[in-house]
Amino acid sequence: MFPGSIGWRAQLAIGDQIVTQSILLCDDEIHILRAAEFKLKRAGYDVRIAGDGQEGWELIEQRKPDMIITDCQMPRLDGLGLVKRVRANPDTQDIPCLMLTAKGFELSEEELAEQWQVKRLIAKPFSPRELLAIVQEILGEPVAASDAL
Predict the structure, then answer these.
(1) Which domain holds residue 30?
(2) In Å, what is the CA distance from 33 to each residue of 1, 22, 36, 70, 109?
(3) Does 32 map to a domain?
């Protein structure tokens, strides 16, 4: 199978078991959620979406994702608040996090990386293709199920 083909999935071989890598997307802008979700699902990732950080945290408590991609500015619980909760919890503190931000919203990528271990700060608008490349760089190249066996 080739990347982008229907049967190709982002999976890891763990012993005899194949596990699909999961990503949690948090953003209050539905068009951004849907564009990123579509691109990541096409690449084979298991994608769950949340409209704000509080909903995202509730999904994390149900099932820990392999990566979190969160907007910075959201209602109820913003992206930084979500990342702080993730880092404060021993069960989730090692999940890689990416943060999306509006172009005019100034955040220090170095400070976010140093203080909160945010892997990347991505300015909106962004290309879903570029987002996918960053995800693959951090999580590693997906393994096709036939290659993992």
Answers:
(1) 11-148
(2) 27, 15, 5, 10, 22
(3) yes
* Total tally of structural domains belonging to the chain: 1
Indicate the burial class of 73 (C-beta count within 10 angstroms; 0-12, 13-18, 19 or more): middle
Q: State pTM to two decimals.
A: 0.82
Q: What is the mean pLDDT of residues 85-95?
A: 97
pLDDT surpassing 50 at residue 34: yes
Q: How confident is the model at residue 2 (pLDDT cuts 50, 70, 90)?
A: very low
Q: Determine the Cα angle at 21 with ends 19 and 27, to 5°.
A: 150
Query: Any idea which residue has 């608040």 for tokens?
Result: 81
State the greatest distance between any 2 C-alpha atoms of the chain, in Å, as a whole number. Answer: 48
Q: Are 46 and 67 in contact (CB under 8 A)?
A: no
Could you tell me if residue 89 is inside a domain?
Answer: yes
pLDDT in tens, 35-51: 999 999 999 999 999 99
Neighbours of 60 (CB within 10 A): 23
Name the β-bridge partners of 18: 13
